[in-house]
Design a protein that fits this description.
The protein is 34% helix and 20% strand. It has 10 helices and 16 strands.
Length: 342
């Protein structure tokens, strides 16, 4: 991974390419769901300040999706980045859900977002659906191109995703419309199949390779390393549990069990005794595996962004991983990162 450097717009965090695409992502990326009202309302100025803080912290990879706030995430990220040099950052969005206007009122809280229900989501992994979704995203973003396009949660649409959506993305990449293509999911089985059976550049794996659980180590990560593909890790805090463990906190978008909260609290006791917050160890942990290119953090405010960047850059005590192993909180065979920041 290249060291941090000045790019004319500020100091940039270390970067890695996605597979063989040449598309670069910073080791720490900005996940755009939270600023679109995930769980609770986020104002325009607060959201804009969060993106500004990410840029100031050296983050140059920004991820979004039509699903996030019914397009609000794309609109807000596009507005916040519009005056930045387009070559200076990498943007990813997703396809698979087409947004259709809806005037029935209400809100979108059933899907996790505190926004008015101005649209309905319709699953569509057809070739035409991919192209329409991409065109709509470019309009909402107000930008001329998207660097990385990911199929979003094709769990129940495997046949169409492999047979229609993926070939459409491959064609768009060959035409130079997008720089890199991939898939984003919470489960590893289909991601592994995409890595092995297609020519994706990268996959986004949410929640399955964290300090708390390492299911992706069984299939996805070895397959990606063997194929020369990159893995972006989302949900590194497991929806908040590893950021601030406490009763009532979320895990995988639902309230965490007492058992999981207890385990996370024990982890926090170990890392705090070693001199670092749990969230610092959680942010750095995925980089123990060479296939991991970036970790996304879904911050909703400038303060959360600045804290994430600070924790990410900490020099971790040499013995913190062994301390976690000694307490039975980290399996012996799981790879761990070096002390220095990636």
């Amino acid at each position: 991974m290249a060291p941090a450097e000045e790019d004319g717009t500020g100091v940039v965090l270390p970067c890695r390419p996605l597979g063989g695409s040449g598309v670069l992502v910073t080791a720490l990326g900005f996940g755009g769901a939270a600023v679109a009202g995930l769980y609770e309302d986020v104002g325009e100025e607060v959201a804009a300040a969060a993106v500004e803080a990410a840029w100031d912290a050296g983050i140059r990879y920004f991820d979004t999706a039509p699903h996030y706030g019914l397009g609000l995430s794309e609109r807000r990220l596009g507005a916040a980045l519009r005056n930045r040099p387009r070559h200076a950052y990498t943007l990813s969005t997703k396809v698979g859900r087409v947004l259709e206007p809806y005037d029935g009122g209400g809100d979108d809280r059933a899907d996790g977002f505190a926004v008015p229900a101005t649209h309905r989501r319709r699953w569509d992994f057809s070739a035409d659906g991919v192209r329409r979704s991409l065109e709509d995203s470019l309009t909402r973003l107000g930008l001329d191109r998207i660097d990385l396009v990911l199929l979003h949660d094709p769990d129940d649409h495997a046949e169409q995703a492999f047979g229609e959506a993926y070939p459409a993305l491959e064609e768009l990449r060959s035409q130079g419309v997008v720089g890199a293509i991939g898939v984003g999911m919470n489960r590893t089985g289909m991601l592994t199949r995409f890595v092995r059976d297609t020519d994706v550049d990268a996959v986004l794996c949410a929640g399955r390779y964290t300090l708390l659980e390492q299911g992706a180590l069984e299939d996805l990560l070895p397959a990606a390393e063997a194929a020369g593909k990159s893995v972006i890790i989302g949900g590194v805090f497991n929806s908040g549990l590893l950021a601030a463990p406490a009763p009532g906190v979320t895990y995988d978008y639902a309230e965490a069990s007492d058992e999981l909260v207890g385990r996370a609290l024990r982890m926090g006791n170990v890392t705090e005794a070693a001199g670092v917050p749990l969230r610092a160890a959680a942010l750095r942990f995925p980089f123990g595996h060479p296939a991991v290119a970036s970790v996304l953090v879904g911050a909703r405010s400038a303060d959360q962004v600045r804290d994430a960047a600070e924790q990410f850059g900490r020099l971790l005590p040499a013995g913190v991983w062994e301390d976690l192993r000694a307490e039975g909180l980290l399996p012996a065979g799981v790879p761990v990162p070096e002390r220095r920041a990636p």
